[in-house]
Structure formats: structure tokens, C-alpha cells
TrEMBL record:
Residues 1-23 are annotated as: Disordered. It comes from Caenorhabditis auriculariae. GO terms for cellular component: catalytic step 2 spliceosome; U2 snRNP; U2-type prespliceosome. Component of the 17S U2 SnRNP complex of the spliceosome, a large ribonucleoprotein complex that removes introns from transcribed pre-mRNAs. The 17S U2 SnRNP complex (1) directly participates in early spliceosome assembly and (2) mediates recognition of the intron branch site during pre-mRNA splicing by promoting the selection of the pre-mRNA branch-site adenosine, the nucleophile for the first step of splicing. This is Splicing factor 3A subunit 2. It comes from the Eukaryota. Residues 54-84 form the Matrin-type domain.
């Protein structure tokens, strides 16, 4: 805005702007800013009439160009009408309760006891590698359920005092109780020598655990008292 040659001003310095001049300058700056940031195509109240001028459908005002309309949208009248329209729409909108979240049904099974099992110690005659073969019988297993297994460290279980020499192998299948076997805490050979099989016809689950050779092992250590330990998750 040029403040030169105004009453009360000195040549070479800014003059004293009147309130009306400052208002014109403010509206012009708002118009330029709005032209750069506002997309009129998305304004529901912007309309071009048949004679080429622009109308504000909210305030029922006429404007000669887009800049004039944008300057109007930044004014108090348009902002006040926007607030009144929002309040009216909010009061007319019926209260809708929040939709209820669908509950995930947790399957519950009545435990029928511990499954039968058999543990066989194995040794590879060529390499001397030792392994354990587990057979767990689930004759009354729930339809569509497959047995599961996982390893648990001695520090994760809460049944016996932790001993780093041992780890636990758990078997689970509904509706049977979960059973766990206490086995040596040695590195497991995860090659083809580690395998599982679920026989759906005989309802028997097989799992073979082979231990990596770590120096000389004359034999698997004897089972401690209560090697077959039972627990529930």
C-alpha cells in the first residue's frame, strides 16, 4: 500500500493512512491470500449467475468477480452466517447412538483330562546324534482343531524353580489339558530331522526333536523327578 503524498506525511516517508485506507488494504491482502489457497469449485455457496456476476447463496450477496467474493468470505457477515448454519444443522440432526462393536466370541471348552502319550529316545548310528520322538493321542479332539506345540524356557514357566539346564515342550489341543515335557536345554536341530505329523485318522500327533551334537554326549541325561509335567495356559 502506497502511503506517499498524504496529509500529515513527509516527502520520502510513509504517510498517515486513514482507517478506510487500512481497511481497503486489509481486504485486498485477504483477497489475494484467498485466491491462492481456496478452491471455489468446492465452495457450496459460490454460484455464477446468468449475467456473469457471482453470488453468495449463504448471504445472498452479489459480487463482480471472484476476488470480491473471496474477500466477502473472509468478512464477519459470511463467517457469522456460517456459524449460524452449522448450529442449525447440528440441532436438526437426530442423535444417533454409537454403533455397537461386534464382540469376538471366545471359544470355551470343558477340559476332559490329559491325553495319552509315548516318548521314544533315538540315536543316529552314523553320527551319534540324539533325538526324542513324541507321540500324543487325542481320540476326542474337537472337530476342526489341530494340535499345537511350542518350546518354553525354564524362566518362562512358573511351575518349578527355573533351571537353565532344562527347557519345556508343550502340547495343546482342545478339549484336552495342555501337557509339557521337561527336556535338555540343548540347541535344537531345525533341519529335516525336526518334523511334526498329525494323523487325522488315528488322532495321533507326532513330533521329533533332534539335538545338535555339542562335544561328546554319551546319552541323554536321565529324566528328573516328574519329567512329565502338566500345566495349563
Amino acid at each position: 500500500m502506497d502511503f506517499q503524498n498524504r496529509a500529515g506525511g513527509k516527502t520520502g516517508s510513509g504517510g498517515v493512512a486513514s482507517a478506510s485506507d487500512a481497511g481497503v488494504d486489509r481486504r485486498e491482502r485477504l483477497r489475494q491470500l484467498a485466491l491462492e489457497t481456496i478452491d471455489l469449485q468446492k465452495d457450496p455457496y459460490f454460484m455464477r449467475n446468468h449475467i456473469g456476476t457471482y453470488e453468495c447463496k449463504l448471504c445472498l450477496t452479489l459480487h463482480n468477480n471472484e476476488g470480491s467474493y473471496l474477500a466477502h468470505t473472509q468478512g464477519k457477515k459470511h463467517q457469522a452466517n456460517l456459524a449460524r448454519r452449522a448450529a442449525k444443522e447440528a440441532s436438526e440432526t437426530p442423535f444417533l447412538p454409537a454403533p455397537q462393536q461386534s464382540k469376538v466370541e471366545v471359544k470355551k471348552f470343558v477340559k476332559i483330562g490329559r491325553p495319552g502319550y509315548k516318548v521314544t529316545r533315538e540315536r543316529d548310528p552314523g553320527t551319534g546324534q540324539q533325538a526324542l520322538l513324541f507321540q500324543v493321542d487325542y481320540p476326542e479332539i474337537t472337530e476342526g482343531i489341530a494340535p499345537r506345540h511350542r518350546f518354553m524356557s525354564a524362566y518362562e514357566q512358573k511351575i518349578q524353580p527355573p533351571d537353565k539346564k532344562w527347557q519345556y515342550l508343550l502340547f495343546a489341543a482342545e478339549p484336552y489339558e495342555t501337557i509339557a515335557f521337561k527336556i535338555p536345554s540343548r540347541e535344537i536341530d531345525k533341519s529335516e530331522k525336526f518334523w511334526t505329523m498329525w494323523n487325522k485318522d488315528t488322532k495321533q500327533f507326532f513330533l521329533q526333536v533332534a539335538f545338535r551334537n555339542e562335544g561328546r554326549h554319551d546319552d541323554l541325561p536321565p529324566a528328573p523327578p516328574g519329567m512329565q509335567m502338566y500345566m495349563q495356559y
